[in-house]
């Protein structure tokens, strides 16, 4: 009989946590340094105690660790939070963690481990300005002279920015870092058959899931008023990179795996045209449960679940979906889940961030009416504020 037991690679990197570098192997917590004296049971009990977290340090800073990341809808994603936690965990008592956010940030920087927050709201994910971002990062480095600059190694801008900065500044850099500590970092080599270790370079690009973002302390969280002026004398013709903007397409034509806003119908939706009108009004992609697809209400490419599509939408609204385990697997990575269902004990209610106990059809009609009214009011306000229209609106 074939042995199907999964073997654990002893070279697998550790994860940096508040207790030090740790690795769980067959239920046993391995400790890589002397800092991990606390037991796993102690950590579990501490996690359940609702107590104010202490400041990581109150000593005068002598060194700076700079973390740079892009924000999405005012928040940092999990990978960026892990990178910020890494800086806070490897910082000593005389080190200050500075967070540089490209885009608007409305989160709690202190709770994430930052001592200072620099927010650059002029950089939006909808605009592509790599040269300006590089200049902003370089200016921040010049102002704070950090010992290390940490960025998430991702494909959404941070990894590219880190590589561009390292090349421009001729700085030492490590990419795809899978293990990090105060004295060293590791990355895979030889087709991931071995780990290479070295001292921390000037620029560290961290892979996801190398750090536990849960911190037992908080940072100072001080907001710094920092002004960055873009190149005013740089014309479009002089720039090497041109931003061609974003092509707007119908949300119904967007692949569900790429959709950021999805409305999904289940067996509780009987009026499909009304549901589709709501999706058009909201500008959302359309999904469906397996039951709705099997009934012929939607095509198979709209099915969400273990046997369909796995989605990662920021907002997922489920109308009349009970929430079978296969469907819940398909939406496990969604950020905000809203369920509309008559059954308050439906399985999807346990996954949902908000559950509306109401009839799906009535809710669809009411929501469509409210969304259409709000969109019309916004269009009217925009028209009145156009040049030449303001006076006309006031006189009327």
UniProtKB/TrEMBL annotation:
UniProt keyword annotation of Transport present: yes
UniProt xrefs under SUPFAM superfamilies: Adenine nucleotide alpha hydrolases-like (SSF52402), DHS-like NAD/FAD-binding domain (SSF52467)
GO biological process, one term: fatty acid beta-oxidation using acyl-CoA dehydrogenase
InterPro entries (alphabetical): DHS-like_NAD/FAD-binding_dom, ETF_a/b_N, ETF_a/FixB, ETF_asu_C, Rossmann-like_a/b/a_fold
Pfam family for this entry, one: ETF_alpha
Gene Ontology MF terms: electron transfer activity; flavin adenine dinucleotide binding
Annotated ranges, domain Electron transfer flavoprotein alpha/beta-subunit N-terminal: 64-248
Record keywords, A-Z: Electron transport, Transport
Gene3D superfamilies recorded: HUPs, TPP-binding domain
Family under the similarity heading: Belongs to the ETF alpha-subunit/FixB family.
Protein name: Electron transfer flavoprotein alpha subunit apoprotein
Species this protein is from: Paraburkholderia tuberum
């Amino acid at each position: 009989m074939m042995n199907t037991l999964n073997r654990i690679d002893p070279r697998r990197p550790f994860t940096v946590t508040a207790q030090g570098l740790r690795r769980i192997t067959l239920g046993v917590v391995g400790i890589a340094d002397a800092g991990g004296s606390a037991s796993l049971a102690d950590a579990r009990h501490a996690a359940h105690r609702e107590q104010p977290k202490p400041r990581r340090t109150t000593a005068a800073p002598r060194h700076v660790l700079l973390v740079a990341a892009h924000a999405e809808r005012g928040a940092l994603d999990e990978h960026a939070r892990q990178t910020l936690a890494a800086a806070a965990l490897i910082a000593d008592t005389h080190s200050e963690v500075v967070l540089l956010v490209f885009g608007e940030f409305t989160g709690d920087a202190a709770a994430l481990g930052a001592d200072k927050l620099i927010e650059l709201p002029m950089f939006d994910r909808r605009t592509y300005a790599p040269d300006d971002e590089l200049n902003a990062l370089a200016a921040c480095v010049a102002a704070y002279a950090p010992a290390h600059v940490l960025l998430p190694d991702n494909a959404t801008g941070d990894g590219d920015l880190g590589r561009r900065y390292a090349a421009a500044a001729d700085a030492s850099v490590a990419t795809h870092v899978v293990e990090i500590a105060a004295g060293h970092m590791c990355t895979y080599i030889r087709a991931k058959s071995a780990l290479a270790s070295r001292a921390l370079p000037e620029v560290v690009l961290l892979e996801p899931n190398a750090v536990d973002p849960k911190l037992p302390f908080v940072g100072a969280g001080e907001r710094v008023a920092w002004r960055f002026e873009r190149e005013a004398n740089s014309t479009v013709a002089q720039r090497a990179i041109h931003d061609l903007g974003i092509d707007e397409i119908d949300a119904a034509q967007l692949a569900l795996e790429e959709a950021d806003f999805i409305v999904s119908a289940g067996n509780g939706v009987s009026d499909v045209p009304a549901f589709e009108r709501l999706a058009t009004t909201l500008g959302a992609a359309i999904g469906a449960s397996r039951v709705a697809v099997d009934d012929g209400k939607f095509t198979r490419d709209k099915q969400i679940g273990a046997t369909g599509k796995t989605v990662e939408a920021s907002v997922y609204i489920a109308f009349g979906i009970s929430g079978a385990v296969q469907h819940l697997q398909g939406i496990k990575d969604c950020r905000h889940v809203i369920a509309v269902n008559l059954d308050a004990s439906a399985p999807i209610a346990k996954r949902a961030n908000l559950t509306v106990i109401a009839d799906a059809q009535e809710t669809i009609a009411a929501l469509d009416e409210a969304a259409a009214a709000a969109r019309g009011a916004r269009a009217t306000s925009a028209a009145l504020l156009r040049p030449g229209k303001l006076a006309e609106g006031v006189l009327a």
